[in-house]
Design a protein that fits this description.
heterodimer; A: about 775 residues; mainly alpha; Clc chloride channel; three-stranded mixed beta sheet; 19 strands; about 10% strand; elongated; B: about 300 residues; 12 helices
Amino acid sequence: MSLELTPSSFLRIGQLSNVDLNEDIHELETEVPRQRPNEIPHNEKLLSLKYESLDYDNSENQLFLEEERRINHAAFRTVEIKRWVICAMIGILTGLVACFIDIVVENLAGLKYRVVKDNIDKFTAKGGLSFSLLLWATLNASVVMVGSLIVAFIEPVAAGSGIPQIKCYLNGVKIPHVVRLKTLVIKVCGVILSVVGGLAVGKEGPMIHSGSVIAAGISQGRSTSLKRDFKIFEYFRRDTEKRDFVSAGAAAGVSAAFGAPVGGVLFSLEEGASFWNQFLTWRIFFASMISTFTLNSVLSVYHGNAWDLSSPGLINFGRFDSEKMGYTIQEIPIFIFMGVVGGILGALFNALNYWLTMFRIRYIHRPCLQVVEAMLVAAVTATVGFVMIYCSRDCQPIQGSSVAYPLQLFCADGEYNSMATAFFNTPEKSVVNLFHDPPGSYNPMTLGMFTLMYFFLACWTYGLTVSAGVFIPSLLIGAAWGRLFGISLSYLTRGSIWADPGKYALMGAAAQLGGIVRMTLSLTVIMMEATGNVTYGFPIMLVLMTAKIVGDYFVEGLYDMHIQLQSVPFLHWEAPVTSHSLTAREVMSTPVTCLRRIERVGTVVDILSDTSSNHNGFPVVESNPDTTQVAGLRGLILRSQLIVLLKHKVFVERANRSLVQRRLKLKDFRDAYPRFPPIQSIHVSQDERECMIDLSEFMNPSPYTVPQEASLPRVFKLFRALGLRHLVVVDNRNEVVGMVTRKDLARYRLGKEGLEELSLAQT
Amino acid sequence: MAPPRSACRALLPALALALLGLAAAAGPRQTPPLELAQELAEELWSAGLPGDLPELEPECRSLLGAFAEGSAALTGCLGRRARPVRLCQGCHGHYRRLLAQYGSIARAVGNSSESHNCAKSILTSDRLQIVVTLSEFFNETWEAANCANCLKNNSEGLSNSTEEFLDLFNKSLTCFEHNLQGQGIDLSPNNYTEVCKNCNETYTKLNDLYNHLQRMNRQGGESAHSAHLCIDVEDAMNITRKLWSRTFNCSLPCSDTVPVIAVSSFILFLPIVFYLSSFLHSKQKKRILILPKRIQSNANLVNIQEKYS
C-alpha cells in the first residue's frame, strides 16, 4: 500500500488521464504522510468494491450431485411445473401492483389538482394568485418530501427508475438490497408520492424494478424481511434460478407498464441475453402476458366496463388509426430527420444529467440534503408550471375537448388555458393529449416554451433521491417538440396532406426516448405495442436507430452512464475490441489466497475476517504440507459455504468424536441463502481454532480454469457466457497463479481515445 | 356503350320475374301468393317497368307518404333553427312524430297478404334504402345534439332544469339589451363597463347554473355523448359567454403580477442558494483507492502504450 506504487497503478495512456486527478495525487504525495490510503474525488473511472457477482454458475460439489441424483424424472417434472406456477404468480402480482399504483396515483393526483384548481379559480376572481402558487408549491414539496424521506432514509437503492439496477442484476452484479421486499414497498410508495408530487417523472420505469423484486421474492417462497418462510420452492434458492425469475419479473413489469408483453420479453432479452434459452423465453412471455392481462382486467373492472379490456398498460397511447394518422412513404425522410434531432437532444440531456449527477455524488451525499433537494425541485416544478400558465395567453374553447382539469384563469368564459393541459396534469395524460388532441389545440409558442422548460425540469429531476422513471418525461418532451415540428411542417408546406400533428408527436416521442435511453429492439416493440399499430413499426424503428447512432456519437445512454457513475463492474457484450494484446497473466489478481483441502479452522477464520481482503472464492489446493512447492488446484470454495461450515462446526475432530452428528445437507446452505451471516457473528473458541476442517466434500471440484496465456477476449467470453464469478488462472502444472473476477475484467473499458483502465475504490 | 345498355333493359323484366319467382318459391306453404306473384310478374312483363308500380299496397303507400311529409317538416324545422341553435326546443314534436311514423312502417303488415308487409317492401327491397337512411340521419343528429338531455323522460316538452336555464338566459339577454340601450352604437369596446356591472349577478347565476348542470350530468352517466348537455343549452351559454367575454370584455383582467413574480422568483432563487451552499460547505465525498494485486502493472502499461502512442 505504499505510495511509490501509486502513479503506476493508474494506467495513463498518453495524457488522457484526468488532469485534476493527477494534481490531487501530487498534493497527496506532498502533504499526506505515507501509508495513508489514497483518496480521490469520485469520478466515472472507478469500480466500487461494494458490488459483488452473483453465483450464476452452480457449485457442483458432492452434496449437490447427490441431491440431483436423488431427484428422479417425475420430480424434475414437478420442478418444471413449479416454475410455471411461479411465473403465473409473478405476472398476477406485478399486474396487481401496477393497478394499485395506477389507481392510487389517479385518485391522489385528482384530489390535488381539484384542490389547486378550486383555489386558483377562487383567487382569480378575488385577487391574490400568489397564494395559489404557494399552495401548489407547498403541496408538491410536502408530498415529495415524504417520498424522498422514505427513499433517502429507509432504502436508498429504491431511488431512480431502477432500470440500471435491474440491468446490473441481470448482468450478474449483486446490488445490495435491490430485490428485497422493503425495496418494493418503498419503491411503490415512492413512485406514487413523486408522481402525485408533480415532479417531471413517470411511474413506468419503477414497474420494472417492482416486477423484478416480486419475482425474486416469490421464487424463494419466503421473505427474509418479514421473517416468514413458507417452505415452498426451496429448490429455487440459489442465484441461478433467482436470476432467471428476475428476468421474468422485469419482463412482466415492462409489460404491465406499457401493455407490451412482447416488448417486455425483448427487454429481458436485450438486458440479460447471455443466459437465455427457449424454454425460459416462453416462460417469460407467459409471465408478461399474465401481467398485462391482470392489469387490464382489474383496471377495466375499476373503470366500470368490466369486459372491455381497454387498458392494457399503465400508459395507454390511445388508438392510432391507420386511416386518420397513416403515414406516406415521403414522410420517412422527415421521420429520420426527427430521429437525428432526438439523438442530439438526448445526448444533450444525458450530458447535462451527467454533470448534475457527478455534482450530486460529490456534494449532495447526505440524506437530509438529498431530501431538501428533492423538495426544492418539486417546488420549482410547480412554480415554473404556474408561471408558464400565468403568462400564457393561449386560450382554447372548452367545448369538445377532453381536458381533465380545465383551468380558466384569465381566459374568456368557456375557454381554458392551453398551457395548463400540459403542465396542470399528470405527465401520462399530457403525453396522450399531445398525441391525440385535434390539430390546432396548441399554439406553437406554447409548445415551444413547454418543451424547453420540461426538458430542463426532467433533466434536473432524474437522479434525485426519489423513485421515479424517465420514460414518460422523455416521451413528453419528444411529443411536445414532435407536435411543434408537425405544426410547423404543415404551416411551411401549406398542405393538408400532413395535417395531423399527432403522428409527429409520436415520432418525436420515440426519437427523444431513444436518444436518452438508447434501447433499440425492445423499445421499438414497446412503442409499437403501446400504439397498437403495427404499421408504425417501420418508422419507429428508423427513428430509434437514427437517434441511437447520432446520440452514441456524443455520449452514451442514460442508464449506462448511471451504471458507470455508480462504479458498477458491468460487463458489456464483449471485451473491448482492442484488448487482444492483454493476456490472463496481466488481467488476473495475484497472489491468490488459497486454502488446503484439509485446513486448520484458525486459518480459515483469519482469512475470512481479514478486512483488507474481502475475497469470496478460495481455490482449494492439495494439502501436502511437506512439499515446499505450491500444490495443484483441487477445487474452489466460496466464502458463504465456509461460513455455513463454520457455523455448523463441521470439523474433522468433531466428526470423529460423535458419529451421530447429522451430516450437513444442501438444505443447510439454502436456508442461509441469500443473507449469509458475517464472519464476525460466528464464534469460534480457542480450542476449535486448532481443529481441522475437510473441504473436499463441499468445494466445487471442477472449477473453470484458464491458462496464463489466454487472451482477454477469450477469458471475457468464458466469464460472461457462463456467468462465472471466479475464474482460476493456472500454469501448466495446474498450480494456481491467479484469479480473474468480474472487477478484473470490467476494469478495461474502451474510452474515447482507446483502452482505459479503471481503478478500484472503496465507496 | 349503347348495345349493352339495351341488353340490360331487356334483361330487367326477366330479372324481376326471376326474383319474384324466387321470392314466391321461397315463400311458405300457400298457393295464392304464388299465383299473385305470377300475375304481378306478368303485369310487369307486359308493362315493361311502368312508372307507377302496382307493387306497393295502398296502406304502405300512405305510410310512406306520411313519413315523407314528416321528414320534410323535421328537415325544415332543423334548418330553420340551426342558428341560434334551438333544435331541441323547437323540433322535438316533429322528431317524435317521425319516430312514430317510422315505427309504424317498420311494424306495419299489409292487410291483403301476410308474407308481404310494408316493412319489407319499403325498407329493404332496394340497395339505397332511402327511408332507413333518412331515419338514421335524423336519429344520429338527435343523438349528436343530445336533445334527450334537456327533454323530459317521456320526451314531451323540456325538462324543468332546462326551462329554468332558458329563463335565466332570457333574463340575462334582456339585461344586456336594457343596459346597452341608453348608450350610443358607436361605443368603443372598453365602454361596456355598465353592462358588466349591472348584469354581473344574472350572468353569474346563469354561469353557475350551467356549471351545476354540467356537473350533475357528468356524474349521471359515463358514456361519451352524455358528457355534453343538450345543444340548445350549450349554444345559449356559448353565445352569452362570448358576448360577455369578447364583446363586452367583462372577463377578469390579468392581476397580481407583482406578487406572483415576487413569490416565484423567491422560489426559483432557493435552488441556487442550496447548490451554492452545498458546494461551498459540504465536504466533498472522497473515494479511497484500493491498489490491485497484479504482477506487472508496468509491463501492462507499456504494452498498451506501445499500441496507442
